[in-house]
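quick one, 263 residues, struct below
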Amino acid sequence: MAEYRDYETLLTEKKDGYIIVRTHRPEALNALNADMLRDIASVMRAIADDDEVGAVILTGEGRSFVAGADIAHMSRLSAVEGRAFMKKGQAAFQTIEDLEKPVIAAVNGFALGGGMELAMACDIRFASEKAKFGQPEVGLGIIPGFGGTQRLARLAGKGMAKYLIFGGGTIGADEALSIGLVEKVYPHEELLERAEEFVREILKKAPLAIRMAKVAINTGYEADLRTAVAFEAEAMSIVFGSEDRVEGMTAFLEKRPPAWQAK
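---
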């Protein structure tokens, strides 16, 4: 079983089969700094090694998800140091995409700059009706550097990515839903409950199948269709040869809940 140490900038709450990770820098509306990037990468590695955790909910403590990168910290960086900070952020967020377990962002408030980029690195985004999204970097003389120029274009299209990044404005949860940036919007007080309900539904499914589905989607999305469906067939062959495929189909035919084996 993985050990979850005391993180400086995150709070963890392990539940039955899943974990809730909360950003926690109350003095800065949970703004991202080097310590939080380190902690995000560290907790994702711990989750990867924890067979008791099948899914993750990432949310914010207080009224902010992540209010952006820490500008006070960034203002002191040289070009070389700034590049290193961006690479650190990209690597931390990549641990979320590389984690072979679903990561659901429960965006409870401000998700600006690096906070919006963090949400976009997750597999699925649920938003509170109070959530606010934006990429305001050009107003500071920079551009999104934690993957925002690329993930936003992939989620919402090139035109919308340029509209949001060039304009540097903020949008609410309903508009974020309309452009495909988030999958669901809920009343603020229901957000975490709905995220947990969804995670519990995921946990009823075959863990190996969920893992391979995430890998197939993420890998195939960057490939041409012929290559992508070929990869899908290989991923399918792995799950088709598993004990869980036998158990899942047998349970369906016998009209009983499956007892999954693989982790």
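Residues 207-254 form a domain with the Lyase 2-enoyl-coa Hydratase; Chain  A, domain 2 fold (CATH 1.10.12.10).
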